[in-house]
Amino acid sequence: MEATGVGTAVRQSVWAFPILEAVHLVGLALLGAAVLAGDLRLMGLGLISASPGAVLAHCRPWLAAAVIAMAATGIPMLLSEAVKCYYATAFWVKMGTLPPALALTWAGRRRLIRQDPPGHTGATRVQGAVSVLLWLTVAAAGRWIGFSA
Question: Of the candidates 64, 80, 77, which has an alpha carbon nearest to the alpha carbon of residue 27?
C-alpha cells in the first residue's frame, strides 16, 4: 500500500500529510458535533424542544459530509504510512470500532428518523450512549495512531 502512487506522493510531499490531517481533523470536529447533537437528543440531554427524528434528520447531511471528508483524507494518510498503521494497536482498535459506529449511526438513526418518537425512551438513551462511546473510541484511537511508534 505504501508503494502506491498516492502513498508515495503523500509521504514524499512536505505539505500533503499536514493538509490531509488538518482536513481530517475538521471532519472529525464536524462528525463529533453532528453525533453529539443527535445522541444527546436521544439521551434527553439536549435540544429537547425538537423531536429526536427532527434533530437526527437535520444532522444527517452533516454526518455524511464528515464521513466523506474523513474517508477522502484518511485513506491517503493510511497509504502513506501503511506499515506503521499495521503494527499500531490503535489503528486496529479504530478500524474495529468504526464499522459498528457507522452501522449504528446510519441504520439506527434511519429507523428513528422514520419513526420519529416524541421523546427519549430507555432504548434511545442506550442507543445514544453506545453511539457516543463508539465514536469516542474511534476518535481517541485515531488520534493515538499519530503517537504510535
Answer: 64
